[in-house]
Specification:
six-stranded mixed β-sheet, 15% strand, Transmembrane protein, 6 strands, 5 helices
């Protein structure tokens, strides 16, 4: 009988090997991820086309009243002399607003005016205007466009580019970014 008992006994397995294997499978990826993130080896992909502005940049921080509270805004400072680049920007702003389609009512294009702005450039457009203060004039002095969220925070800027083709591409990028923000927004 003892002979039969030995044949049917299972050999003893070491419990350490499977335990170490399980440990490596679950802990090693977490440890590797921690090392990669702590050494800044991972660069997350950004899908926005514009340049994000620092957090805290808002109408309030620039000491300016929000001309359209609780509304999405697209800002552009009308320069003292509206040259061809300025005319192209105004055209791109108008076309970008039209291209928003059903979201047009959620976004207001505002042309900010300084005391020396070239008002004749607006003759063929129907943009809303607002008076700009010195702080925002300094910020927008390079003919750039700014997206403002409904809470009054200046979110993203699009620097001025030369050439109508580059401006059209920038307008398309602006529309893509605005649509993403509008889709994710629960206000405005």
């Amino acid at each position: 009988m003892s002979f039969l008992r030995r044949e049917y006994e299972l050999p003893k397995k070491s419990g350490a090997k499977p335990l170490i294997l399980l440990f490596l499978v679950f802990v090693l990826p977490v440890a590797a991820a921690k090392i990669v993130l702590s050494l800044d080896l991972y660069q997350g992909g950004a899908t926005n086309k514009g340049v994000l502005l620092p957090i805290g940049t808002s109408y309030q921080s620039l000491k300016m009243d929000n001309p359209k509270p609780r509304e999405w805004q697209l800002l552009y400072l009308l320069p003292n002399k509206c040259d061809q680049q300025c005319q192209d920007h105004l055209y791109i702003l108008q076309q970008s607003h039209i291209a928003l389609g059903r979201d047009q009512d959620r976004v207001h294009t505002l042309i900010l005016l300084s005391k020396d702005s070239d008002l004749h450039a607006l003759a063929s457009y129907k943009f809303e205007t607002a008076k700009a203060n010195d702080a925002i004039i300094k910020m927008l002095d390079r003919q750039q466009m700014i997206v403002v969220d409904p809470l009054g925070s200046l979110v993203m800027r699009y620097p001025a580019v030369n050439g109508i083709d580059k401006q059209i591409m920038q307008g398309k990028s602006l529309i893509v970014d605005l649509r993403k923000m509008l889709k994710l927004s629960r206000v405005g």
